[in-house]
Amino acid sequence: MAKVEALPYDDKTVYSVAAFNRGVAQWLGRLPTVWVEGEVTELRRHDRWASVFFTLKDPADGSCVGVTMPRGQFDGLRLDLQDGERVHVYGRPELFEKRGDFRLRALSIQRFGIGAHLAALERLKAKLAAEGLFAQERKRPLPFLPRCIGLVTGNDAAAKRDVLTTIQTRFPPAHVVVAETYVQGPRAALGIIDALSALCARDDVDVIVLARGGGSFEDLLPFSDERLVRAIAACPVPVVSGVGHEQDTPLCDFVADRRASTPTMAGKLVVPDLAELLRRLESARASLARGVRRTVDRDVQSLGRAHERLRRAPALLVERKRGRLDAAKGRLTALSPKATLRRGYAIVRRDGAVVSRVAVGEHVDVELAEGGFGARVEETHG
């Protein structure tokens, strides 16, 4: 270890910068390892760097101290730290002599407070997701017109008023059963589970709304309780989660069949807008009336055409029959013996029977086209 020596200068003791920094560093090196609490800021990590750097800030007055930790050791903790997280850092103070840079060389890091809760919630979230409790295919559709709506909320809570006002405004005939319970504190999770069970025991409840207004991270922790999450998953009717504000995401949001950004939005999800329904009903009625009129007009026109065809059908049938009779008459006339006689032929009969051969001395009757005569055969040929 290099010795720290002062330079003689008249009547003063003077140290060089290097000697001064070295002396301070040696003194700091005698200090014990300590735990330091603060918020992580300015976190800097790079795969090509040997160390990870961040600043530890006191949220009370903004005091800061730089922290460094070997990258392999930091990665081995698998904390996935982000700026703003509260941590406990175990390390030793040291001074980088060349630059007089005071910092804390970290040996270990632990989350605490909100950071610890966040880490625990992430582990629980991953566990429940692996079991399929958050799977999209298990989500159930909400009923269009529920017979009864269950509402789990706090006593005299703004969330309760928001949900009830929204439901009554959108659909005045809606029937709502309110189950009031604790929504904050250590008894809240079990209280919510009991209220949920009581509503599920009713035969007429078709959907349940879980509502709570905004609050701090700690205030909303009961809605991430594993017991409550599993109770929602086992609920026999669809559940709408309307907890906190848009940025709040307790675990009940992931397991619920529908997630609403606010309690007011939850009220909008469970009932239709009556005014809009009436407007759509009137539009459908008018459309149906137009359709009926078009159908009747089309049928009247079709009936008129059928009537005209029926009116004309007998005359057309007679005309066709007459045409066929005339054609048959023409064919019969052409085939008639009279037509043959008119061409100069004669019909010879003997004793009333037509003959094709005669003998000399026979008496025959000869029929001509006009009249006829009797004759005796005096001579034959061929």
Description of the structure:
It contains ten helices and 16 strands. The protein has helices spanning 17-29, 71-77, 114-130, 158-170, 188-200, 226-233, 251-255, 263-270, 274-335, 337-342; strands at residues 7-9, 12-14, 34-44, 51-57, 64-70, 86-96, 101-111, 148-153, 176-180, 205-212, 239-243, 258-259, 347-350, 353-354, 363-367, 372-376. The mean pLDDT is 87. The chain has three domains: 7-112, Beta Barrel (OB fold (Dihydrolipoamide Acetyltransferase, E2P)); 133-275, Response regulator (Rossmann fold, 3-Layer(aba) Sandwich), CATH 3.40.50.2300; 338-376, no CATH class. Strands 3-4-5-7-6 form a five-stranded mixed beta barrel. Strands 9-8-10-11-12 form a five-stranded parallel beta sheet, with helices on both faces. By secondary structure, the protein is α/β, with parallel strands linked by helices.
Brief rundown of the structure:
This protein is α/β, with parallel strands linked by helices and 382 residues long. Helices cover 40% and strands 25% of the residues. The longest helix has 62 residues, at 274-335.
Radius of gyration: 54 Å
End-to-end span in angstroms?
166 Å
What average pLDDT do the residues reach?
A: 87
List the domain count as a whole number.
3
Shape: elongated
Strand proportion, as a percent range, falls in 15-25%
Ranges with pLDDT <50 over ≥5 residues?
none
Number of strands: 16
* DSSP helix fraction: 25-40%
Helical run tally:
10
Widest beta sheet: strand line-up: 3-4-5-7-6
For the largest beta-sheet, the strand count, sense and barrel status come to: 5 strands, mixed, barrel
User: Architecture of the largest domain, CATH level 2?
Assistant: 3-Layer(aba) Sandwich
For this structure, what is the CATH class of the largest domain? Answer: Alpha Beta
Structural class: alpha/beta
